[in-house]
Amino acid sequence: MSDGFVLAVGNQQVACDRSLTLLENIHRAGFRALSACRNAACGICRAKIRRGNVHYKQEPRGLSEAERVHGFCLPCAGFSDADLELEWAGLQSKDVVDVRKISCQVQSVTPLNTDTYLVSLVPADGSQPQYAAGQYLQLIMPDGSPRSFSIASAPESQLIDVHIKVIPGHERAQQVIDHVQRRQVVTVELPFGECHLPDNEHPLLMIAGGTGFAPMKSLIESSLARHEARDMWLYWGAANKSQLYWHEQMLALSTQHLRLHYVPVLAMADEGWYGATGFPHLKAADDHGDFSAFEVFCSGSEGMARAVYAFMQAKEVPDHRFHSDWIDILRNQGAL
Ligand code: FES
């Protein structure tokens, strides 16, 4: 048998090497695809097999039994020995990627708490960054692989900020921090994602978990910079108070702007914590009951996005009023 096979995605055909993962093969061919963990854990690269077979070196943790039965695979860790056809919503055309690629100077890398960093970038050519509040970028690593991060700054700012959390035992985020600390100039691609300020005056209800706060910060700062009139409610959930790494700034901002309502929610009460505890979307439901007036934004883990989406569906929030990158990705993958 030959060492090669052909991977077909839509009208794209990629000559592949059997010794490489499907994701490595498309990177080698100059394509990009949405990915995060690249070890079959997070599920973000999920694609559907239309023809052929995909196998793995280890059991893929990011794929449920039901998803396997329905023909889904994880290209970041999947191999094939023969021609393969995939429905791969996260695969991006070379043309689109090329026009979005820019060089950025690393302005600063600042710890926000024990494990989360603020990385500030500036376009190296001095141009104004082009993105909408709430969107995300991909930082290109030295091996060409992209790492996705929500943009935490507002497009009205000259900076492009991202918040990166380093989790012990997960080396990928640490690799990004090492990369931006070593390099003066890095490559990013932007913008991605459909979550941005809606073209109406409806109030915003923002449900964030951990560094899912980043795109909410961008939405809030952009709305304030545009002098919008809408009310904004942010429910920011975290495991403990130190994970609310922008807490003091949010308290100060919500004091200055009466249309901004900030509600921090800890999973469990910390020492000296007198605020809300539990899940942020349940706290929002306690406060509002009816969500029909809101544009709802959700940012955090896939599990959180699924739970909040299901909750909002039960509350009859229509899909066009619910904004979440994870839900968009899952819907594009046919995984919802
Ligand atoms: S990138 Fe995480 S499962 Fe593939």
From TrEMBL:
What residues does the FAD-binding FR-type domain cover? 99-198
The record's section on InterPro entries has:
2Fe-2S_ferredoxin-like_sf, 2Fe-2S_ferredoxin-type, 2Fe2S_fd_BS, Beta-grasp_dom_sf, FAD-bd_FR_type, Flavoprot_Pyr_Nucl_cyt_Rdtase, FNR_nucleotide-bd, MRET
In the record, biological process GO terms are:
bioluminescence
Please give the PROSITE patterns that the UniProt record associates with this protein: 2FE2S_FER_1 (PS00197), FAD_FR (PS51384)
At the top level, the lineage of the source is Bacteria
* Gene3D superfamilies reported in the protein's UniProt record: 3.10.20.30, Nucleotide-binding domain of ferredoxin-NADP reductase (FNR) module (3.40.50.80), Translation factors (2.40.30.10)
Task: Provide the cofactor list for this protein.
Answer: [2Fe-2S] cluster
Q: Name one GO molecular function term.
A: 2 iron, 2 sulfur cluster binding
Q: Which UniProt keywords apply?
A: Luminescence, Oxidoreductase
**Which Pfam families does this UniProt record tie to the protein?**
Fer2, NAD_binding_1
Q: Does the keyword Oxidoreductase apply?
A: yes
The record's listing under PANTHER family reads:
NAD(P)H-FLAVIN REDUCTASE, NADH OXIDOREDUCTASE HCR
Which protein family is it in? Belongs to the Fre/LuxG FAD/NAD(P) flavoprotein oxidoreductase family.
Q: How is this protein named in the record?
A: CDP-4-dehydro-6-deoxyglucose reductase
Taxonomic placement: Bacteria, Pseudomonadati, Pseudomonadota, Gammaproteobacteria, Pseudomonadales
